[in-house]
Amino acid sequence: MKVIECSELTKSYNRKKVLNQLSFSIEENTITGLVGRNGAGKTTLLKIIAGYIKNTSGEVRVFSERSFNSLNVSGNSIFVDDQMSFPPALQLGELLGEAKRFYPNYDANLAKRLFDYFGFDEKAYHNRLSKGKTSTFNMIIGLASRCPLTIFDEPTTGMDEAVRKDFYRALLKDYIAHPRTIIISSHHVDEVEDILEDVLLINKGSKLLHLPIAEVKEWACGIKGNSETVLKLINNKEVLYQKEVGMNTLYAVVRKDSSGSGSIEEQAQLAGLEVTAVRSSDLFVHLTTEAKSKGGIDDVFNNY
Amino acid sequence: MANYYILHYNSNALHRRGARAILNNNSSKPIYVQIAHWIESEILNNHFQADQKVYSQYQLAEMYTINPATAAKGLNLLVDEKILYKKRGLGMFVTEDAKQIILNKRRNQTLKQLVDELVQEANRLHISKQELITMIQDANEEEVQT
């Protein structure tokens, strides 16, 4: 069953298109990573799915309903980010207790155990917490509520490395025990990719990739070696990135294509070039870098 | 280049530290292939006998902190290669011929690829055929002694 279906979803703020003709669907009980550069439209997309804001055109269906103003969607989903608002008069301990009234699947026991594990004080107040502690507390509510649709928007903002690791593992363990549909947006692809099933990469409001994480590693490869040889090989191939590394040596990231004679890797190896895997996070950066600046930040400093 | 693949094939790609296992995220192989490779090694090491049940996708997911779908993909890879078989509702089990299949596969593919790369690297370093053979013999003797 598809939990989320978007077709030609568009959102404009003052005539500027933040989301542009986005079409995709997300299956029930999967963990999807939403990846994209700053300002790509991730938060806007998640907020539309959660029903917080209304799309300009196109269609969004969550649990087969339009998500905006839908009680059913609100009741079955939770949107976790670092700006969740809680009643300022209540102490953290009281907040944990009150959450039960909003989310029928809420596991108070799990919430309390996580709360204690991460060293929270029941008498503390939410608006006085540090950045990392705020994210951690919100994440606890997000996990313990066990909503059929759980959305984490940059859940690890401010968390230290140990807490981030604990969070990913807690999320995975609870997901195994209680499968549900989870979307996580994150800039830390390396950290989060292992627990994902699918990845949705958006850039400037458009969809670039939506595929199982397992296929991302086989989507492109890096080739390094003698500049001339590399250039000859990547001619008429889809080049995502290229950079001079040392004397007369070129590193290029190329999309693999199954068509033609022999894979690009085999050809490269035959030509005595070095073939490497491309990390998912690097691939996403290459894919979302402007076409005219294939050298990345270095182009800013070259010839000026 | 040679280094790159050796890093993966000497099964360090997937080693266990304490109770938690570590996957090599930089390997050129996707995680599910590494999972399949690790189970193969467990079978070769006699940690799993024929007709014995192997880890479920959820156990693997839990052990390696990976998505259960990724773990399932690794297991299915082994089913396709007739190293594991499915019993509906019971899980995955090691086939009778599993060990032989793995041995054949590693001999024909992994070892051959390593040898190809070894020869390539030797050529690049202008090492003669005889020198290379001597080096292999020496390494073999050292291995036997230890």
UniProtKB/TrEMBL annotation, chain A:
**Statement: the UniProt record of this protein carries the keyword Nucleotide-binding:** yes
Q: Enumerate the CDD domains for this protein.
A: ABC_DR_subfamily_A
| Stretches assigned to the ABC transporter domain | 4-229
Q: Which UniProt keywords apply?
A: ATP-binding, Nucleotide-binding, Transport
- InterPro entries assigned to the protein according to its UniProt record, in alphabetical order: AAA+_ATPase, ABC_transporter-like_ATP-bd, ABC_Transporter_VariousFunc, P-loop_NTPase
Q: Which PANTHER family does this chain map to?
A: ABC TRANSPORTER ATP-BINDING PROTEIN ALBC-RELATED
Question: What's this protein's name?
Answer: ABC transporter ATP-binding protein
